[in-house]
Every structure is written in C-alpha cells, then in structure tokens.
Amino acid sequence: CITAQDQPDIGAGRSGYSFDGINWQYRQNARPISIEPNHLVSSYLIHQNKNDVQLAKYSPDEIVTHTIVGNDGEIHIFWHNYPDPIFLYLGGYGISVPHNQSLSKQETKSNMLIHGGDYYSVIQAIEVPDGKFEADLLLPRPGWSHTHLFGGKGAFPYWKSSSPVPPHIPIVIYANGTLNRKPLPPIIKLLESPGLLKIQFEGEWFDIKLPY
Length: 212
What we know:
By secondary structure, the chain is an all-beta fold. The chain has one helix spanning 53-56; strands spanning 15-18, 24-26, 31-36, 39-45, 62-69, 74-80, 87-91, 95-97, 104-107, 111-116, 119-127, 131-137, 153-161, 171-179, 188-193, 196-201, 204-209. The strands form three sheets. The protein has an eight-stranded antiparallel β-sheet with strand order 3-4-5-6-14-11-10-9, with no helix packed on it. Strands 1, 2, 7, 8, 12 and 13 form a six-stranded antiparallel β-sheet that branches.
C-alpha cells in the first residue's frame, strides 16, 4: 500500500503506538537484535512526537518486536517498556482491490479477513488485551491513479488496543496474505512461564524471552 489522500502515514504491516489512541506513530528505524531464517528480533524507540527522534536516542523507552516467519503467514510478538500504559497497534498485509470492486470484510471476535480482487489478508488475535479490528481502504489523492503498487486501491486490516496497555505485556498476533485462496486457519500453541513465552508454529517451537 502507498500513501493516500489525507493519510500522511500508513501502518500496514507495522506495529505502532499512541499516547491518546488518536495520534499514532509506527515502527521505524528499527535496531536489529537477532536475525535467523525464521525468527527476527528488533526494537525501535518510543518518543512523544516525530520531532523528538533525536531526544529519543538517549531514552531507554522502546518497543521490542519478534517476528516468526512460517511457510504460510507469520506471528508477531511485541511489547513496550514505557513507564505508563500506552495504546498498541499491529497492521496486517496490504492487498490490492480493483477500482471496480469494493472491499469485502469478514470479522469475528478473534480475527478479520478482508478480500479484494484475487487477494486475501487475515489478521488474528492469539493473545491480546481488549482491542478491535478495523480495515482501511486507501483512496488515491489528486493526480494519482492507484494506492497499491500492483494497481487498484490499497487496503489492509489491523488490530489496536481499546485501552492503554501496561508495559511488558506481550501482544501475539498472526497475519497472512494470500493469492487466489483464503488463508488457512493457523495451528498455534502457547506456553507461558515467568520470563519465557514458548510458541509452537508450523510444528516448530520458538522461545521468546520476556522482560520479567
């Protein structure tokens, strides 16, 4: 997806945070922590507004993100260490919706599936606090024909917390994008103990060290 009219930033495929639930900032300038073929770990700094980027370099406040990459989708695990609770967000895969078609949405208590043209995108809550699913359809701004790099209108689903989330609370969300088929329901198992979250995805176990 690409920037649309009246939308200066896009949270497709990115985690994000907000202090008031209205003004959002999204993952950028990530610092790599660990890189494996199917498990990526990084962090990015939290700052009050976009002009505080330089000041944030001297702050320990950050969001840590784990991405477990499978053959069919991926799992995102992330948390923050800001002293106060803040709102959290995760965007799913962006898809192309042909100009002559509307965006189809199917929502349950635990996930949202969107469909347009030949593409599908699903985002599913595995372990999250109270939150809600939404989807954005991006309309072209003046002088532009499309809002997706493949042509047509870009669209993506996302989850965001309904209230501020305390620090060190892991958010676990599955996301997948597919072509010419609906995404298959994932089989995911979680085992949590003090300081450790174990996740089984596509038959393999992953250890996520937690900050407590």
